[in-house]
């Protein structure tokens, strides 16, 4: 059966790869777990759009990673708006997606939310924070941001 992978599958491929697998493997493992979709023209077009969007966020090499780090360092006011009580305690917590949206709103580069190192449950109140962004294997950036009540 011909499938398009939607997630990384060990010993098979990465998202966007078109693979040929046995029918049972596809029906019983890949499709129920949403690791792949049946290869159709519409699915191939959708995967092409997803790949284009990933290419925009992708760090190409070390020099590009240094450029992105300089852009992050140049940002002055990164603000993350969240719902909070009057005492400053958040209703929930700040996610990596919230930080990516804050960086983009401040005029910074487009980041992939999976590159942000945010310890679980770290941010549960308003204030100023700093997180690391793994831009490349050898390049780490830092993002300073403020969490404010919306």
Distinctive features:
four-stranded mixed β-sheet, three-stranded antiparallel β-sheet, 25% strand, 32% helix, 150 residues, 4 helices, Ribosomal Protein L9, domain 1
Structure write-up:
Helices cover 32% and strands 25% of the residues. It has 150 residues and is of the alpha+beta class. It has 2 domains: 56 residues, Ribosomal Protein L9, domain 1 (3-Layer(aba) Sandwich); 88 residues, Ribosomal Protein L9, domain 2 (Roll), CATH 3.10.430. It is elongated, with a radius of gyration of 19 Å. The relative contact order is 0.15. InterPro entries: Ribosomal_bL9, Ribosomal_bL9/RNase_H1_N, Ribosomal_bL9_bac/chp, Ribosomal_bL9_C, Ribosomal_bL9_C_sf, Ribosomal_bL9_N, Ribosomal_bL9_N_sf. Belongs to the bacterial ribosomal protein bL9 family.
Summarize it.
This protein is α+β, with helices and mostly antiparallel strands. The chain is built from 4 helices and 7 strands. It folds into 2 domains: 2-57, 3-Layer(aba) Sandwich (Ribosomal Protein L9, domain 1), CATH 3.40.5; 62-149, Ribosomal protein L9, C-terminal domain (Ribosomal Protein L9, domain 2, Roll), CATH 3.10.430.
């Amino acid at each position: 059966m011909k499938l398009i992978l939607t997630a990384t599958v060990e010993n098979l491929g990465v998202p966007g790869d078109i693979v040929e697998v046995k029918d049972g493997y596809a029906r019983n493992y890949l499709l129920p777990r949403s690791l792949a979709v049946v290869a159709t023209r519409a699915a191939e077009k959708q995967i092409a759009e997803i790949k284009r969007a990933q290419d925009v966020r992708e760090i190409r090499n070390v020099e590009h990673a240094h450029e992105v780090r300089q852009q992050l360092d140049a940002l002055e006011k990164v603000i993350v708006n969240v719902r909070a009580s009057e005492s400053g305690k958040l209703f929930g917590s700040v996610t990596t997606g919230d930080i990516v949206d804050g960086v983009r709103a401040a005029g910074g580069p487009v980041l992939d939310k999976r590159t942000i190192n945010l310890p679980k449950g770290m941010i549960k109140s308003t204030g100023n924070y700093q997180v690391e962004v793994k831009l490349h294997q050898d390049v780490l950036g830092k993002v300073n941001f403020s969490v404010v009540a919306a």
